[in-house]
Amino acid sequence: MTTTNIPVSAVSRTIGRLGRAREFGILLAIVLVVAAGTVKNPSFLFSSDGWRDLLLTPSILLLVAVGQAIVIITRNVDLSVGSVIGLTAYLTGRLFSDIPGIPIPLVVLIAVAAGAVLGLVNGALVAFGKVPAMVITLGTLYAYRGIGVVWAGSNRVNASDMPSSFLGLGTGQILTIPILTIVAVVVLGIAAWYLRNTRGGREFYAIGSDPAAAHLYGLRVTRRILTAFILSGALAGLAGVFYAARYGTVDSQAGTGWELQAVGAAVVGGVAIVGGVGTVWGAALGAVLLLTINRALPVLGIPDFWQQAVVGVLIIGAIVLDRVLAVRQKRRLIETRDQA
Amino acid sequence: MTAPTTTATVRVVKNYDKPFWRRVLLSRETAIVVLLIAVAIVSASTVRGFNQPLTLTFLLLDVAPILLIALPMTLIMITGEIDLSVGSMVGLSSVTTGVLVQAGAPFGVAALAALLVGVIGGAINGFLVTVVGLPSLAVTIGTLALFRGLAVGLLGTTAVTSFPVEWTALAKAKIAGTAIPYIIVPFLVLLVIFALLLHFTPFGRGVYAIGLSKDAARFSGVHVERTKFVLFVLAGVVSAFAGIFYTLRFGSARGDNATGLELQVIAAVVLGGVSVFGGRGQLYGVIAAVLLIGTLSSALRLVNVTSDVINIITGTLLVLSVIGASVLAFLQSRRRRPAPTPTVAASAAS
């Protein structure tokens, strides 16, 4: 937005390059991690199990991170996603065990709709209550988890309660690519297209950059924020279905702590916590990087207990890098302005 | 955002047109205190076993870490920042103590080292927020993972349980003749320090000023960066102290000690009337909120409600309390100004 009053060519190209560099950098990091793991133990990549896990493991977090990125881009945050995953994963299992013969697409639809409703509650409280999203979703994190625990008690849904065709989704592959991964990537593609090319998507960025300006400009801020939270909830709902399909057992604690992983993935992926900056591609790659490191550490001979520490260093490194780049870019913009 | 414009949000401290007694009696903090007393009376008269002194002992032991950390967290949140890493710091301090005791260090040395870890951890947060200039939410999500990762990495899934008996006994001991555990003594000392700091020093006025408007505070001579840095270090060291207490109370140092504590602390602080935007909040409201959640939990546990229902109640209370404040403000603005005026004009006029 500052590029309007300065010579465009060089600056806009720099910005474009920076934007691309971020996703590229993470991709490079993923490749390095995978390469290191593979050199140490070729089956990390070249066995059928290794290949499958490599693609399958991040696909659930990827969905949540995409939803989280959309919310963060509007300068909000959704801390309740972990609890939404827990609720919808248990709902999925219970639907199968309570209603034998229920069609799988219907279950998926119900779970996604349930996630969307939970997201709508968040969004409505944030948008109409004019209360910071962090507080609201911190509250609903507890409330949703609590509902799940009261509902599930100490019960758990086991693999035997779910039809094998559904569990097959969790392990099935098409051309060696796991089905869940394909679904996740398709969802990612749609979300990326929506954010990049549609009016609604661009308005998310506008709202995140400056909510007051967006409001004065006549954007329907309330509606967009509602949409962002519904999307985040629905994607967490889909992730809940994935969770049930992938792990086969669901108890009331499913998805605990995923909210911070999702925020971490988005932040590592270059989505600025102050809103208005970042892409869902970046967030998705961030999710892949975090979980790939998680898998690579034991292979590299580092006990996986250290995984979280590595994640912490990565998050801090990523935001420091963003800051350095932003400061440098600002200085360059000022120089360009002064020369003009 | 890019140009140094004067668009800093101007927020007006409301309600100073009302008489003093109305400000005090109708405040958020008073509501929480009244609610706390009501819950205590109802529990005492209806819940069997609530009146026993042991209830109070366990209640205080349970909420002690939250009480302790809520003190610096209140100040941090009044400046408009946040520290999500406190729960992980409790874990890291616990593990530090455990590892050193296991290695044969005297307990006092191990505890001092843990406090030092707290100072260093807080300084890392403070450095990244004030010197590098990063948003504290992002920074402390990172250090949340980092501190927890170090704690889990150092001990793995093992636990250290070989602590000197005199220390573990002290953590659970009651002050002679009462049902009050000793941990309340350091808490009260810290409370007095923090209350004096917040309400009777220029530093404390600066804390509120930063929360209301960082730029205005800087122009009025408040050391914004230094204040925030000090607060993060305080949060680190108090969390480390809470970690030592936590270790002794359960007689066990584990990497996953106090996971998720940060959310409980923040929930209590917000419930206690601290605005997440900063600039508003009182220590007594926060302490009442911690005790309210603690009293509710222990009463419910006595009637065999699981701790998970307590989480629902915490969450719902939190949401209701913030929504309630918004609704109230909305209704008041409607009543005073029948014709809704744009907010910009309203704040400029007052």
From TrEMBL, chain B:
The source's domain of life comes to Bacteria
Q: Which UniProt keywords apply?
A: Cell inner membrane, Cell membrane, Membrane, Transmembrane, Transmembrane helix, Transport
Q: Which residues form a coiled coil?
A: none
TM segments?
30-47, 59-79, 127-155, 175-198, 229-248, 260-277, 284-303, 309-331
Q: How does it sit in the membrane?
A: Multi-pass membrane protein
Where would you say this protein principally sits, based on its record? membrane
Q: Which InterPro entries match?
A: ABC_transp_permease
Q: Give this protein's Gene Ontology molecular function annotations.
A: transmembrane transporter activity
Any matching Pfam family: BPD_transp_2
Instruction: From the Swiss-Prot or TrEMBL record, give the protein name.
Output: Autoinducer 2 import system permease protein LsrD
Origin species = Microbacterium ginsengisoli
**Organism lineage string:** Bacteria, Bacillati, Actinomycetota, Actinomycetes, Micrococcales
